[in-house]
Write the structure tokens for this entry.
Amino acid sequence: MNKEYSRKIKLLKLWELLKNETDENNPMSTNTIIKRLSDEGIQVDRKILYTDIDILNSYGFEIMVDRSRSNKYYVVDRAFDPHEVRILMDAVHSAGFITEKKSEELITKISALAGSKMGEMLKGNITKYSAVKNLNEGIYYSIDKIVTAKKEGKKIGFFYFDYNEKRERVYRKEKKQYVVNPVATFIDDNQYYLICYDDKHKDLTQYRVDRMDNVTVLDEKIIPNKMAEKGSLAEHKRQLFSMYGGKVEKVSLEISPSLVGMIYDKFGDRARLSKNGDKIRCMVEVQASPMFIAWCCSYGENLKVLQPKSVVDSIKEHLEVMKELYQ
């Protein structure tokens, strides 16, 4: 490396090395620092290294030292503490709307906020539970288009689809383009939504971003609407449901075709679906808790539990209790 260039880049490389690869549990010795810089074509002797570290400290780049025969240096002050980084990593890992591939990429980037040593340790300690992950990589491009449209004050157009029992896309409106005024995005029940309004219905509505296809920023300007104000927006976002907690059971269900998308949302590719006349049969593995029983009943005639008998009996018992309640 050119000596003049080496001199100019030296402090930057020294800080980068210590910031990325050291912490209070993993200090780096003087000899190791000199060797690592040398491997990158930057020559520095022991005395100059001490001076360089003093310069960095004087300008606020705090480098700590454990003094011994061979001093060891490390960086503690980071934008995120390890527990904060871990929370972000867990949030990405559990987010169903982020695909498996993108989750790994984001977790790697987030882990770097804690430094390479701590980051690798945090990545290695992530619990690999079976989060149901979305398969639509296009969600990231859709979000980018929505953000751009909001920034430029433009409407967006898109096609919207559901799934059939073969996990094939079935477009609504026979693939006619939706045109809406984007208002906000939000996460609810592990899904990513767009809140918007269209000029025809003059009301807020929401669409799942992973079900939006070919999102396009249009030339039309957003038309202001009072429904988009914060108060109305907060009220619209109030929707949530939950389930599970109990003995694991393999449950056979019979559902209406309209519930196919919901089954994929809840159980992912673990659900096994097949046609049965005008109904859909599916097998799912669930925790058959009171919440699950109530969830089954909430779909009325569109969902029927076939097996096992213990779950069917629990459904009947639940319905009897509800019937008595409303006598």
